[in-house]
Inverse folding.
């Protein structure tokens, strides 16, 4: 499976930086309508993904939904770095299928761990369906 052919390039996706505030993260997620987003460090390296549940746990811990209070901490503080591991561009089919079964999207990184894009479950299924029709 040619990942580069079926992934959504980074420039066409939404992502967060670990130094974004919690408020910025929530606003970005709400605006795009996603339930999870990849998070990058200042050098564009993939460091993990963040979900709606991560934000919810943060707000419950803080005991507030006040927008000003959500500007006090950064995404990096609540980020689960082991959630939604990335795959490399040259991952084999079995690794891709195994990852996409467990996650709605899989971040794709290059050899420097820089985010190249994301592979969605829908994209993989569409690719496999096209392939089976031929």
């Amino acid at each position: 499976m040619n990942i580069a052919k079926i992934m959504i390039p980074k420039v066409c996706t939404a992502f967060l930086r670990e130094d974004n505030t919690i408020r910025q993260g929530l606003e970005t997620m709400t605006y795009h309508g996603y339930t999870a987003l990849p998070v990058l460090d200042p050098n564009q390296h993939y460091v993990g993904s963040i979900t709606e549940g991560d934000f919810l746990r943060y707000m419950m811990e803080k005991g507030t939904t006040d927008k000003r209070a959500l500007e006090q901490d950064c995404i990096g503080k609540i980020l689960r770095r082991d959630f939604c591991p990335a795959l490399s561009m040259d991952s084999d089919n079995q690794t891709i299928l195994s990852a996409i079964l467990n996650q709605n999207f899989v971040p794709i990184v290059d050899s420097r761990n820089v985010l190249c894009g994301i592979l969605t479950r829908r994209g993989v299924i569409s690719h496999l369906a096209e392939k089976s029709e031929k």
